[in-house]
Amino acid sequence: MRFEGRTSVHAYGGGFSVFHSVGPLKYLHKKCSNIEVMEGVSAGALLLAIDISHDFDIDKLINVGLEIEKMGPQSIFRSSNWKNVPHYTGPNLYDNEGIKELISRYVNAKKIIDWKGKYIAVTHNESLGINVPFSNKDEGMTPERLNLGILASASLGMLLPEVEIDGEFYSDGLTCSIANSIENKMDNIFLLINHRLDGSDLLLRKKFWQKKQIATMRRSVRQSIVKDIKHAINSGYQLIEENPSRHFEDMEVNKKSVIKNVLGDAIDAINPLNPESITERMIIKRKTIVFTPFNPVATLDTAEFNLGDIKTAMERRETEVERFAKERLEKEL
Fold first, then answer.
1. pTM (2 d.p.)
2. What is the DSSP string of 176-190?
3. pLDDT band at residue 168, thresholds of 50, 70 and 90?
């Protein structure tokens, strides 16, 4: 089975736990014929940038994960002498020099700019109080500016300092926005999330204020994701969750929207002004597929991990995704 039609991939963050998304990415690269948009936020923006930079070669992406594991968390999240680090909203626990080195080592911004698809790193403009995307398709985008956008997206507030770009301060955008994918009539919308939507895997393991703040922030992010998914269902998208949650158990796909989507696609297909021929334009049932880990590695956290955690997460997720595809996904589709 392959996913035909137009596809968008939305990768969420979670620091080092982002390596739970490597398994779903491997599956998508095998099964998707036309990924048009790759949108990432926080560590998800960095992961997708590395993926594109390495020509979607999942083995190379796995090797990057293993190399980062050998470096250790302290090589990335380095203690900050906050008095000497420029910041906008207040002091931070770490500097972002380690993230800069990861971008320098693993991201090829020029290759991302040249990629035919659309790459988006979601940031938050602290100066204006709004989320701002940095895209390879932005007019006048340069490798230097795109790298700054990726750095800003990967700079989680409280932990890492904001990034100054053109006199304004940017940080982690916290959440992707699938509304644009819905508006642009994507046939397949994939969400790569590194924590359970029910929050069952986010029990606090250490009692200091940053952990509590991050847990609170993740709860807000989960609520935003749930809201986005409900919007997709109301827009006629079939929902398939890897780990079904109670958030959507009383919801049904909006049948009127489904009919509207099918009719719209049919009209597009026979429209003589449509640059695509009728043989190239397909009428496909639209769907949103949500990947979340069934058994996430508990010690693979935002800014820390134990030796072997990244390898375990990547291998475990590959197995989980294969089981999900075989037992549910391919049958439901």
1. 0.89
2. ---HHHHHTT-SEEE
3. very high
